[in-house]
Amino acid sequence: MQDLQDRKKFFSRCRRVVIKVGSAVLTGPRGLNRVMIHRLSDQIAEFLERERGREVVIVTSGAVASGIRKIGLSERPRTIPHKQATAAVGQGALMEAWEGAFDKYDLLVAQLLLTSEDLAHRHRYLNARNTLETLLSWGILPIINENDTVVVEEIKFGDNDQLSAMIAGLIGADLVVNLTDTQGLYDCDPRLNSSAGLIPVVHRVDAKILACATPQPGSVGTGGMLSKVNAARKCLASGIPMIIAPGRERDILLRLFDGEMLGTVFLPRKRVYQGRKVWLANLPKPAGDLVLDAGAVLALRKKGKSLLPIGIREVRGTFGVGSPVRCLDEAGNVVGVGLSNYRSAEIESIKGHRSEEIETLIGYKHSDEVIHRNNFVLAGEMMEETDGGPDA
Ligand SMILES: Nc1ncnc2c1ncn2[C@@H]1O[C@H](COP(=O)(O)OP(=O)(O)O)[C@@H](O)[C@H]1O
Ligand SMILES: N[C@@H](CCC(=O)OP(=O)(O)O)C(=O)O
To answer: What span is annotated as the signal peptide, if there is one (predicted)?
Structure first.
């Protein structure tokens, strides 16, 4: 079980962190609060600088809030087309503000606009995952918002609290930091009850915890505290800790990572899967098998390499791009499971060939690897669970 006795140690073990910033933090009297964006980016730059190997993904709200002021609307748009148009006006300014703020640290940022449909389809899920992994490996900061322009009810995340929990699962994050305009989760809505008390740690999102949070957001937010608690429930189910913390407090991120007692920490009770194994634990059953030669087995088991077509002997089953597939050695032992970059019929054509030949053989090339290492977990690792925090 994880514990918070040594908060500093707990937070310092979190290498891959999703930071969600709510409209409540980013909205000021003149629209987008650029000072807030600068304060947060200064801290994120320092957080990344302090230790090599740390990675941050930002999920940012604020497009609608920013658009409202730009257009000069007197109130929040009510209809979906009005919200979408307002977000389209505000998103550019939101992104430009983050980009400008990280520019002084020579940190590049990338914009990703997603809908829940993008993560529901294997093909798109894999692309979103590959894009995020590539950006992180290049040291570029992904900055994500829901793609408000195209969302209709059925493909909405609902709000960025849900989106941040799903992104955390997608990339196997070690922690989600949810920055909002309260100190954390109170035992009842602090707007309605001035004696509401802050809850420091939650291990399980049960009816009692759900009853603390109301769905009414502040004047600029969406979903209110209830959506944050529901997002925390998703995170806990994947073994990922989440903290709700006051985003407007000075040096909030640095103080959290220094171990200061702040916010409400949602801490998984069960032992957690290490980092990127989280997503694998949530994968559907393997859709097929790839039988590998001894060289490929060695490359995967011992050298931490990706799977290339040249090492594949046999393809079993019919599956599409993004499907989870098992890798077996020639004796039938499971080497591991990963997501395939090619359809089974395509692998049939490229197996045993060098990656340079892929395009000639099937008419296009997605990548040199049939399974990228980032999307692969060894059989031994799948069983293994760890005590303590991530990377313990
Ligand atoms: N039990 C609770 N504890 C803390 N805040 C609560 C609670 N219930 C409701 N709230 C309200 O939820 C609001 C945060 O939700 P929201 O406005 O959606 O923020 P954000 O824009 O950061 O996503 C706070 O302003 C707070 O007043
Ligand atoms: N996509 C919307 C944010 C929606 C949302 O979830 O807002 P919030 O509750 O403030 O995190 C925007 O950029 O305005």
So the answer is: none
Structural domain count of the chain: 2
Q: Which domain holds residue 318?
A: 285-383
Q: Based on the fold, state whether residues 44 and 177 are members of the same structural domain.
A: yes
Per-residue pLDDT of the chain (392 residues; tens, 9 = 90+): 456 778 888 888 899 999 999 999 998 887 899 999 999 999 999 999 988 889 999 999 999 989 998 999 888 888 888 988 999 999 999 999 999 999 999 999 999 999 887 877 767 788 888 899 999 999 999 999 999 887 766 556 678 999 999 999 888 899 999 999 999 999 998 888 889 999 999 999 999 999 998 888 877 777 789 999 999 999 998 889 999 999 999 999 999 999 999 999 999 876 555 545 555 655 667 889 999 999 999 999 999 999 999 999 999 999 988 888 999 999 999 999 998 999 999 999 999 999 999 999 999 998 999 999 888 888 876 544 333 333 33
Residues 183 and 38 in one domain: yes
- 200 in the same domain as 346: no
Question: Is 228 in the same domain as 170?
Answer: yes
Query: Is 146 close to ligand 2, i.e. is its CB under 6 Å away?
Result: yes
User: Could you tell me if residue 65 is inside a domain?
Assistant: yes
User: What global pTM score does this model have?
Assistant: 0.81
Q: How far is the CA of 145 from the centre of ligand 2 (A)?
A: 8
* Cα 271 to Cα 1, 17, 46, 240, 306, distances in angstroms: 5, 19, 30, 10, 28
Q: Report whether residue 336 contacts ligand 2, using a CB cutoff of 6 Å.
A: no
